[in-house]
Amino acid sequence: MTEITIPASLLPADGRFGCGPSKVRPEAVAALAEAAPTYLGTSHRQAGVLFEVGALRNNISELFSLPDGYEVLLGNGGSTLFWDVATFGLIRDRSQHLVFGEFSSKFFSASKTAPHLGEPSKIETEPGTHPLSQAEDGVDVYAMTHNETSTGVMMPLTRPAGVADDALVVVDATSGAGGLRVDMSEVDVYYFAPQKCLASDGGLWIACCSPRAIARIEEIAASDRWRPATLDLGIALESSRKDQTYNTPSLATIFLANQQLRWALDNGGLEFAAGRSDASSSHLYGWADAHELATPFVKVEAERSRVVGTIDFAESVDAKRLAAVLRANGILDIEPYRKLGRNQLRVAMFPAVDPADVQALTACVDHVLAALA
């Protein structure tokens, strides 16, 4: 099945196109190796690591041009854990969730099963599209997803008209943060993990929080609501202000994320990073639109993700077999999201991925399709 050899002249320089963990730039790995003797294996309560955590918070503030009063919080566990964190420390009573894929549905489920919260509201559309928020009585958190990793749909972020003054707009930006443009003044909590656009490893959640969100965190922290310490946003806020996490973080994850952030900032910031993803996605979707056997899964052009591309294939193409041949030739992790169950490929186009490698990828797909035919 996989005995098709792609000519070396067609292959990408780097064959990693996975949606997480993502490609880590070799330069960042080399920098980590150089710093390792005095950084890895050292105390996370001492100056060396405190400096790196502080740099992470400052670099994120700079990349997103955070408005005055916004703070960067972090803790261990990733975005999946942050959904539980939010049920304990952000939602006062009821939340509204936009559900349009696997990951946006999981935050809804976490809120629905939390025994101390009221019944959440759900606005749902079919995978491949996205819904829009609308003001609703009694809702104090409006949960959105900037980029649905499972389907390759991105959505605009705007504060819904007519919502209560103290209601929070809480955005899952796991696969979009650092690769998609964002106006932070429209968002109260923009949370994500570093193993995608930040070209690092997993095990950390990061949240950019507005003054309105900080006030909500402090309000709940002062209440009698029971909260496990590891899910307590009040503790995370206190620790982050000291450039720490409540418990031991992955030092490598923090360091690699900083390397990616500095690379982006030194080359033009978020516009530079988003521009690389724009170039990659423009090529991928243009190729698929013109192809007789491929088509973008997301039909509305404005909703097509710039960082995660999903491409459907005709019934005559076995996309699973196609992916297996590509993997055998060193092109990795472009299989579709397992629960979506479509005959497609899913391609990460995060800023660390060279747009030239995306062009090489489509040339390789064409070569394999011709060989299989």
Structure write-up:
By secondary structure, the protein is an alpha/beta fold. It has 2 domains: 28-266, Aspartate Aminotransferase, domain 2 (3-Layer(aba) Sandwich); 270-372, Aspartate Aminotransferase, domain 1. Helices cover 37% and strands 14% of the residues. The chain has 10 helices and 12 strands. The protein has helices spanning 26-39, 47-63, 78-89, 102-113, 211-221, 233-240, 251-266, 270-290, 319-328, 355-372, and strands spanning 71-76, 95-99, 121-124, 141-145, 147-148, 153-154, 168-172, 189-192, 204-209, 294-296, 308-313, 344-348. It has a 7-stranded mixed sheet, sandwiched between helices. Helix 4 links the parallel strand 2 (95-99) and strand 3 (121-124). Helix 2 (47-63) crosses helix 7. The model has no long low-confidence stretch (mean pLDDT 97).
- The CATH architecture of the largest domain is 3-Layer(aba) Sandwich
Query: What integer is the average pLDDT?
Result: 97
Q: Per the principal axes of the C-alpha atoms, what is the gross shape? A: globular
- The oligomeric state is single chain
Summarize this, please?
This protein is 37% helix and 14% strand.
Protein topology:
Layout: H1 26-39, H2 47-63, E1 71-76, H3 78-89, E2 95-99, H4 102-113, E3 121-124, E4 141-145, E5 147-148, E6 153-154, E7 168-172, E8 189-192, E9 204-209, H5 211-221, H6 233-240, H7 251-266, H8 270-290, E10 294-296, E11 308-313, H9 319-328, E12 344-348, H10 355-372
